[in-house]
Amino acid sequence: MANLKKLNNPCAIRKSSTCWLGEDKLNNSSFCKFTDIFYGIRACAIIIRTYVTKYRLFTVRDIINRYAPSADGNDVKSYLDFITYYTRVFSGGRFTLSPSSVIETDDDLILLIVCISKIESSVRLNYDYVNHILQKSDIHLSTHSAPF
Questions:
Q1: Of 33, 59, 140, 147, which residue has the fewest beta carbons closer than 10 angstroms?
Q2: pTM higher than 0.70, yes or no?
Q3: pLDDT at position 28, please?
Q4: CA distance 21 to 35
């Protein structure tokens, strides 16, 4: 697997026809390379927001089944188990994102991005930093304002 840290792509976003802001198209990896981790996190937030707002995928299970499908060799059950465990630990036991949890707030979106990053690249993102990226990019689950 590509070194996702060097690609500034902690959420393992694969190359596609989408032209992401901050993407360096001149790399020969099958994964996107971003000029800064800011843009890699931003792209993940837009992808998940699109799953919720366009494709009507509301639960963690539905989102992960599309983001990391078993057809691509992912162990979806282990992925979902990790999200449940990690959100419980990350929040000090205050809350948990389970497979049936509905992603409906920016906090839910941030936690899911933190988990995806940890699973895909072992990068432990800071909640406040991810929140900063979403705020600066005006990415929210209730709006479609951020262009690609």
A1: 147
A2: yes
A3: 86
A4: 9
